[in-house]
Design brief:
The protein is an alpha+beta fold. It contains 23 helices and 21 strands. About 30% of the residues lie in helices and about 15% in strands. The N terminus is likely disordered.
Length: about 950
């Protein structure tokens, strides 16, 4: 029925037509009916959209659960606002059988009632629950009517009582004949003693469908049962007895010493323990023991089940309790190498403010304005202790820099881990708060100590006094190596051993059986270094050509075939070189004793290269056998070593047909000029190529005048390399995933740190951001290494579990790496479980050590199924009772997909002796 509104006489024709078309629909007379209509319209829209469209239109992921999303809408009724949420997943088997009954990824309502998708309608209030019983019933009825009108089978729930009880009422229309009702509540304290045991819980469930209150223990009711018991190990930081200190001794400052007995930290023998103590990332483990479904007919069977050992359970799974300190949300809370590298990068940014290191510590110069007032200089006692560790508490043996290094470590231009500068950088990370002032003060004292070693002729610790300077390291490390060699050379000169010449060098030679000659120069410590082979000695300008003159031109003339030439003694000769002869004199060619190339650091090489390029001198050191390469045959055949060797093998064809190239034979040839002007002295009488006093003072001058930025850029590269090399020594078993992460870290560091190798006194803001991001990546790998080490120690007898848990955590953590906020598809909590195989159960059970009487966490045992004296921290049980559908007229209207047998009663029980939650679902015929 409808009514037509009155039409004003002054209205226009078009307004009149609109008024005639307006009707008041009296079928929606009450606000409650309008409320039902609004709910129905929303549900119809959600049904029409389907899962895929809801996801496209912005469905919200419920982050702590897998494969669970929700959409919501706001509703109003009787001056109150409500929020209706629809929860759904992309898989239809969530929460219903399929082995997912105990999954931690299920929503509480899915776990409690065995449902998949569902609706929740709740008031928009501070509590979020309906406190009034009639209001809750009316609200649930409105949703049920709306769902029935649109033929929707979603279950609907309303939260009631108070939030702490987690109580719900719900309803689900299951077709023409059946309706399913839900109810859940919780007892937070004073749980009845009867309900603490399986026997009492069984009787509680049976009472829901028994016909009388008679003694239930005397009747048989077939009930299906599934059970999940959760055990938790004692936290590893509490796993010891409490002991009082003897005599009330207190530490400095008046605070009592630790009450714990002397127990080593878990990472006491880990490589990072020298610098900091890491919190154990694995706080403990949760063990889930699962009993598969079985039929129970009496409470006596439940009593027997309560006495069964957890080893009898069909399935075990374990889940680690990982510390929150490893999560991405705890950046800045964990103290480790990564946190200190962040501070070092801040110091690098500040180093551009002044030109001299002393300006950061001198009171005569004003500090940079943006330098924090909290940037303090460590007291002299701290610096003295650190310098003592660097220079005096060192093993006498020279360190092996290659020992334990990663194969990609040398791609980073820093100092080796065990070197003096490498250790300096590691100490600098922890001196003070690693600010630029603390670093400057530490560097000044470090250089003073180095100069003292030089002036007092004391060996430079942690640096080799011989060998070749490694140009792949940073310049400071090269300079310190040069200084150590100069110290040793100066010491040799002062000592002058009986077999040493004035240069402190031993010369020796041996002639091989095949007449080839090798000259050897041995240093005072006996190490031998090969110098040159055959005519290669002619090719290196680093070797004074006077040695060649003394061997070839300034020796007595010995003609070919002279029987006395073999006995002729030549100064500086190491022996005859095969059958090679000089072109004009027909004398056998002798190999001279030569000296090694002069020791040079990277900057010295660059200066020499610039000088050579300025003089346009061809650098023959890059092309061996340069004399042979400059020999031209008359027939213009291809030049090479093979042709010359073929000629010299036959003495009858001497001299070979050909000539030197134009550049070697032209007038004023630079090589000929050098050859002719060089004094004819053997190597043992030539001027030393290295003046240890002069070069040592140059090194000290470099260290004392180093710009702050030049110091910090080398410190950053070295610190990253040294800390990575330290962590690389961690023992974590055969975790291939961890090995891959470490390799990726080295490659990332090598790429990112190249911005510090440009030799420019400038670093832009983008470079600083890249270095900060590198610190984030480093922190991620450092956390993984700590976790890997902890798991390896705990699962040494079950390495498969260690690897599986680690890989799960790595896969969980990677999507969060480098992200500013958590995405909707990323879980917030790591809760993966790993199945424990039969052969691994004893290893896991051994982790549950029997509790002692002194442990404060020990509770009064009130539940069964003990594991080494530990009762479950949580017990979950699902009771079900199934009935058969009667074959009658109404069966044809039952929902499609329902089997002949279905659950009529389902009760989910969860809790402990002090906390009990019960959820009941009953299917009835309306």
């Amino acid at each position: 029925m409808a009514s037509i509104s009155k039409i004003p006489s002054s209205a226009k024709d078009e307004d009149l037509e609109e008024e005639i078309e307006h009707f008041d629909d009296f079928t929606l007379a009450s606000s409650w009916e309008r409320f039902i209509s609004e709910i129905e319209a929303v549900c119809r829209q959600w049904l029409a959209d389907g899962t895929k469209n809801l996801l496209k239109n912005g469905a919200i992921s419920v982050n702590i659960y897998e494969d669970l999303y929700k959409v919501k809408t706001d509703l109003k009724y009787a001056m109150k606002s409500y929020c209706m949420e629809y929860y759904f997943g992309t898989h239809n088997d969530v929460g219903r059988g399929k082995g997912n009954d105990w999954s931690c990824a299920l929503h509480d309502l899915q776990l409690s009632f065995g449902v998949n998708e569902f609706l929740v309608i709740a008031p928009q209030s501070a509590s979020g629950v309906v406190l009034d019983g009639p209001e809750a019933s009316k609200l649930l009825s409105a949703v049920a009517i709306a769902l029935s009108n649109c033929s929707c089978l979603w279950p609907a729930f309303v939260p009631v009582h108070v939030p702490s009880r987690k109580a719900y009422i719900g309803i689900q229309n299951m077709g023409t004949l059946y309706t399913r009702r839900f109810e859940a509540d919780r007892i937070g304290s004073q749980v009845p003693l009867k309900l603490m045991h399986l026997e009492g819980l069984y009787e509680l469930f049976v009472s829901k469908f028994a016909f009388s209150n008679m003694d239930l223990s005397m009747h048989l009711f077939q009930v299906n049962l599934k059970m999940n018991l959760t055990y938790r190990t004692v936290p590893y930081d509490e796993d010891f007895d409490v002991q009082e200190p003897e005599g009330g001794i207190t530490e400095a400052g008046g605070s009592p010493k630790s009450k714990h007995h002397n127990r080593k930290p878990w990472d006491d023998d880990c490589p990072w323990s020298e610098w900091y103590s890491a919190e154990d990332p694995v706080k403990g483990f949760e063990l889930l023991t699962i009993w598969s479904e079985k039929a129970i007919e009496s409470s006596l069977e439940m009593a027997e089940l309560e006495n069964a050992s957890p080893l009898e359970a069909e399935k075990w799974s374990i889940s680690p309790c990982v510390s929150e300190i490893l999560s991405a949300d705890s950046d800045g809370k964990r103290i480790g190498f990564a946190s200190q590298l962040q501070l070092l990068i801040d110091a690098l940014h500040m180093s551009l403010e002044t030109q001299f290191v002393e300006d950061f510590v001198s009171v005569e110069h004003s500090r940079p304005e943006n330098l924090k007032s909290t940037a303090i200089i460590p007291p002299p006692t701290v610096l003295d202790r650190v310098l003592k560790d660097l220079f005096y508490e060192v093993e006498a043996a020279q360190p092996d820099f290659a020992e334990g290094d990663h194969k990609n470590s040398r791609t980073i231009k820093g100092a080796p881990l065990e070197s003096l500068f490498g250790q300096f950088c590691l100490h600098a990370l922890w001196v003070g708060d690693c600010n630029i002032r603390a670093i400057a003060a530490f560097w000044i004292e470090f250089v003073r100590e180095v100069r003292w070693c030089w002036e007092e002729s004391q060996p430079l610790p942690r640096m080799p006094a011989n060998g070749v300077i490694d140009l792949t390291t940073c310049l400071i490390n090269q300079k310190l190596h040069m200084l150590a060699i100069c110290m040793d050379r100066k010491h040799q000169f002062n000592q002058k051993g009986p077999k040493a010449d004035e240069n402190g060098v031993f010369l020796s030679a041996r002639i091989k059986a095949d007449t080839e000659v090798q000259s050897v120069i041995s240093s005072q410590d006996g190490d031998a270094q090969a110098s040159c082979w055959e005519c290669d000695s002619l090719s290196t300008p680093d070797q004074d050509p006077a040695s060649h003159i003394s061997s070839f031109e300034h020796s007595g003339a010995v003609k070919l075939g002279d029987p006395e030439h073999s006995a002729c003694i030549r100064r500086g000769s190491a022996g005859v070189v095969g059958s090679m002869m000089l072109l004009k004199s027909y004398q056998n060619m002798h190999a001279p004793f030569t000296r090694d190339s002069p020791l040079m650091t990277e900057d010295m090489h660059e200066e020499r290269l610039q000088a050579i390029e300025a003089l346009e001198i061809f650098r023959p050191t890059r092309e061996r056998h340069f004399v042979i390469r400059d020999w031209e045959n008359d027939d213009n055949m291809e030049k090479g070593v093979s042709q010359i060797n073929a000629v010299v093998e036959s003495t009858y064809d001497w001299p070979p047909r050909g000539k030197l190239s134009e550049r070697m034979s032209e007038h004023g040839n630079l090589w000929r000029k050098i050859w002719n002007e060089a004094p004819p002295l053997p190597a043992s009488e030539q001027k030393p190529l290295l003046d240890p006093n002069q070069e040592g003072e140059k090194v000290l001058h470099y260290l004392e005048t180093l710009r702050p930025y030049q110091l910090l850029e080398q410190m950053v590269s070295t610190a990253f390399r040294a800390t990575a090399d330290t962590l690389n020594k961690t023992s974590f078993g055969g975790l291939k995933q961890m090995t891959t992460r470490i390799e990726q870290l080295y490659l990332t560091m090598s790429t990112t740190l190249r911005c510090l190798q440009t030799n420019s006194l400038f670093v832009d803001a983008e470079d600083i951001k890249d270095l900060k991001r590198l610190c984030t990546t480093f922190a991620h790998v450092e956390n993984l290494i700590t976790l890997a080490a902890s798991l390896h120690r705990k699962f040494m007898q079950a390495p498969r579990l260690s690897e599986s848990i680690f890989n799960d955590y790595d896969n969980f953590h990677v999507p969060k790496l480098g992200t500013v906020s958590i995405g909707r598809d990323v879980k917030k909590v790591f809760n993966n479980e790993q199945e424990v195989r039969q052969g691994e159960r004893e290893v896991i059970a051994s982790m549950f050590t029997p509790p002692t009487a002194n442990q404060s966490w020990r509770k009064v045992l009130s539940m069964g199924n003990l594991l080494n004296g530990h009762e479950p921290v949580s017990r979950e049980i699902i009771f079900t009772k199934r009935d058969h559908l009667c074959e009658n007229y109404y069966v044809g209207h039952a929902p499609r997909g329902y089997q002949q047998e279905f659950e009529t009663y389902r009760m989910y029980v969860c809790g402990t002796s002090n906390d009990l939650g019960v959820a009941l679902a009953v299917t009835s015929c309306d």
